Amino acid sequence: MEARPEVLIHQLTSIPKRIHPRRVVEELAATNRLRTEGTLVLMEAVRAIKVRRVIAQSVSFFYNPNGGSAASESEGLFRLIPGASELVDTIHVHEHAVLGSPHIEGVVLRYGSFYGPGTSFAGDGSFANDVRWRRVPIIGEGKGRFSFIHVRDAAAATAMFVGAGEPGIYNVVDNDPAAVADWLPYYAGLLTAKRPFRVPELMGRMGAGAYGAYMMTGQRGASNQKIKDAVGWEPAYASWREGFRAELCG
After folding, report:
1. CATH number at residue 92
2. Are 106 and 99 in contact (CB under 8 A)?
3. Cα dihedral 98, 100, 101, 105 sign
4. What is the domain count for the chain?
5. Which of 122, 123, 196, 235 is most buried (most C-beta within 10 Å)?
6. How far apart are CA 154 and CA 114, in angstroms?
7. What is the pLDDT of the chain when averaged over all its residues?
8. What is the rounded average pLDDT of the residues 152-175?
9. Is the pLDDT higher at 168 or at 67?
10. Which 3 state secondary structure label does DSSP give 146?
11. pLDDT tier for residue 135 given thresholds of 50, 70 and 90
């Protein structure tokens, strides 16, 4: 009896446990290859065996920082992210390969910043350790906005698209995009760590590099309205506030 897969979920990465923002391009080099060369080879294979749907991982933090409110999927990628243009180009190739294959239902899920078990934000994770040692300052006014998502909420959203939802791009984020100046002190408090230092933007750029400073000062959050309308998904943790508390104090 012949059998073949109907849906393929592409979550391949090679992300180190700890990433320094000054070296983000070098440290994500293997993941970039998986998302370019790897995705192109994978799409050739799924076309050959006539897979119906491909669901692929992407990221929600490469939107135009000057767009105002939380970004929707219709805006596309912003190619001028300081210090990260190569990463954005990689995501563009990856997404285009998934969405542009004839006769395949391509679904791209742009996840927010993961937290929860096994992530750098977990109590035993690398980011938590850096915050305890006060290695993560608030740069400038800390206006960069993060959209978070608990890994279990991300998994639940992914599973829904196996049998539902139209092809296309969807942000998978919680309801509460937040400025660094708000979420980082809160997170440090849950870790019983000292309050993060504040440093001027120029000093922060020297320490964290162009991309690290951008994340802290200019990054824009994302909207989850499209995925809610499409498949009725709701995150169990509507806000990083309750999610962080549950993970770090539960």
Report:
1. 3.40.50.720
2. yes
3. positive
4. 1
5. 235
6. 8
7. 95
8. 97
9. 168
10. strand
11. very high
Which domain, by its residues, includes 25? 7-249
Backbone angles phi, psi at 73, to 5 degrees: -65, -25
Under 8 Å between Cβ of 223 and 165: no
SS3 string, 113-138, reads: EEECCCCCCCCCCHHHHHHHCCCCCE
Residue 89 tokens read as 């180009």
Contacts (Cβ under 8 Å, ≥6 apart) of 99 = 106, 108, 167, 168, 169
Rounded Cα–Cα distance for residues 101 and 112 (Å): 25
Extract long-range pairs of 95-98: CB within 8 Å, 24+ residues apart.
95/56, 95/58, 95/169, 97/39, 97/40, 97/43, 98/10, 98/39, 98/43, 98/54, 98/56
CA-to-CA dists, residue 25 to 78, 105, 191, 225, 232, angstroms = 17, 30, 29, 31, 36
Confidence of residue 1 (pLDDT cuts 50, 70, 90): low
Beta bridge partners of 111: 59, 172
Category of 60 on φ-ψ map: left (φ > 0), alpha (ψ -120 to 50) or beta: alpha
Residue 38 lies in a domain: yes
Domain membership flag for residue 1: no
For the chain, give the number of residues: 250
- Tens of pLDDT, residue by residue over 189-211, are 999 999 999 999 999 999 999 99
- The pLDDT assigned to 192 comes to 97
> Residue 65 falls within a domain, yes or no?
yes
Global model pTM greater than 0.90 = yes
**Would residue 143 count as lying in a domain?**
yes
Model confidence pLDDT, tens digit, residues 60-117:
999 999 888 899 999 989 999 999 999 999 999 999 999 998 899 999 999 999 999 9
